[in-house]
Write a structure and sequence with these properties.
With 342 residues, this protein is mostly helical. It contains 13 helices and two strands; from the N terminus they run ααβαβαααααααααα.
Length: 342
C-alpha cells in the first residue's frame, strides 16, 4: 500500500497521462530545444482547464441555492487550508509539463478543483433529483462525468498528482455525506434566523483573518477569501429575500419545459443583464475598497506587495466579492423583475 501511494504521489504517472493525451515537452518530440525549453515551452493537442472553480450564487428565493452554495464553500475552505497545512509539492517539471503557472506557487494536496467539481456536481444532483423529473441514472452519470473530466484536466495541465486528485474527490464525498442529513436544518436556520446576516459575515471573515501563515506569499488566502466572501454575500441575500420578498419560482416535482425560441431569448437576456450588473459591481467595489484601504494604510495603489498584506488583502477581497454575491441574489433578480424578464 505504501508503495502504491508513493507511486500515485509521484510525477511520473502524471507525465505518462500527458503523453497519452499527446502533450509533450517542446524538446522531446519533433524538436531540438534545450533543457530550458523543455521546462518552459510545450507543444500540446488541446487546451487545459482555465482558472479557478468558484461556486456561483443561485437565483433569488431558492433554498437549493443555499445548499448548492454553502456545501462547496465549506469544501473549498477545508481544501485550501489543508494544502497549506500538509504542504505537499506539486508534480515536478520535468518530467511533467506545466500549463498553468499562476497556481504553481501553491501546494498540491488536495486538489481543490477536484473537490469543487465533486461538491458542485453531486450537490446539484442531490438537490434537484426530487425537484425535477429526470432519470436518476442520467443525473448520477452527468455528475460523475463532470467531476471526472475536471479531475483529469488537473492531470493534463500538470498541476496535481494522481493522489492529489483522488484525495480531493474523496474528501468532498465524505463531507457531502456528513452534511447531507443536516442540509434541511441548515437551510431553515440560514433562511429564518435573525442572526443569519451577522453570522454569515462574521464567521467567514474570522476564518479568513486566521488563515494559516506561510513562509512565502501564495494566492490561496486571497482565493479562499474570495470564495467565502461571495458565499457570505449570497447567504445574506437569500436570507433577505426569504424575509421580505416572495420566491420568484415555486413548485415541486417539475418536469423540464419545452424549449422555445422565446424562452431562449429570455434566458439569454437574463444572463447578459445579470452578467453586466455583476461585472460592474465587481469593478466598482474593487476600486472603492482598494482606494479606501490605500488611504487607511498609506500605500500606493500600484504597490502589489502592500496589497498582499493580510490587513489589506482580506478586506479587499471579502468586501468586493460579498458585494458580488449579494448583487447576484438580490439586485439582479429585482432588476430582472423590473425589466419583465421573470
Amino acid at each position: 500500500m505504501a508503495r502504491l501511494l508513493g507511486t500515485l504521489r509521484g510525477s511520473q504517472p502524471v507525465a505518462s497521462f500527458q503523453r497519452c493525451c499527446g502533450l509533450f515537452p517542446a524538446g522531446e518530440e519533433g524538436g531540438g530545444d534545450s533543457a530550458e525549453g523543455v521546462r518552459h515551452r510545450v507543444v500540446c493537442n488541446g487546451g487545459g482547464a482555465g482558472g479557478r472553480l468558484r461556486p456561483g450564487a443561485a437565483g433569488r428565493g431558492a433554498p437549493n441555492g443555499v445548499r448548492g452554495g454553502r456545501g462547496p464553500q465549506i469544501v473549498m475552505y477545508i481544501g485550501q487550508v489543508s494544502k497549506d497545512i500538509l504542504k505537499w509539492p506539486r508534480p515536478l517539471s520535468p518530467p511533467v509539463v506545466k500549463l498553468e503557472m499562476r497556481t504553481d506557487a501553491e501546494y498540491g494536496m488536495p486538489s481543490t478543483h477536484a473537490m469543487a467539481a465533486t461538491a458542485i456536481s453531486f450537490s446539484f444532483f442531490i438537490t434537484t433529483m426530487n425537484q425535477y423529473k429526470y432519470p436518476f441514472e442520467l443525473g448520477l452519470m452527468a455528475a460523475f462525468v463532470f467531476s471526472t473530466l475536471v479531475c483529469l484536466s488537473r492531470l493534463y495541465t500538470g498541476m496535481h498528482t494522481v493522489l492529489d486528485v483522488i484525495g480531493g474527490a474523496l474528501i468532498s464525498a465524505v463531507l457531502l455525506a456528513l452534511l447531507y442529513p443536516v442540509w434541511d436544518s441548515i437551510d431553515h436556520m440560514l433562511l429564518t434566523s435573525p442572526f443569519c446576516p451577522l453570522l454569515s459575515i462574521a464567521v467567514p471573515l474570522l476564518l479568513c483573518y486566521n488563515y494559516p501563515k506561510l513562509d512565502y506569499y501564495s494566492p490561496t488566502r486571497g482565493d479562499t477569501t474570495t470564495i467565502l466572501g461571495a458565499g457570505a454575500g449570497a447567504t445574506v441575500g437569500f436570507w433577505l429575500n426569504n424575509q421580505y420578498v416572495a420566491p420568484a419560482y415555486v413548485g415541486s416535482n417539475m418536469g423540464f419545459p419545452v424549449i422555445t425560441s422565446a424562452m431562449v431569448v429570455l434566458m439569454l437576456a437574463r444572463f447578459f443583464v445579470g452578467l453586466l450588473v455583476i461585472l460592474l459591481t465587481r469593478q466598482l467595489m474593487k476600486n472603492v475598497v482598494l482606494r479606501v484601504l490605500c488611504y487607511c494604510y498609506t500605500f500606493h495603489i500600484a504597490d502589489l506587495d502592500a496589497r498582499r498584506r493580510l490587513e489589506v488583502e482580506v478586506p479587499y477581497k471579502f468586501v468586493t466579492y460579498s458585494s458580488v454575491g449579494f448583487t447576484a441574489t438580490v439586485i439582479v433578480p429585482l432588476l430582472h423583475e423590473l425589466l419583465g424578464l421573470i
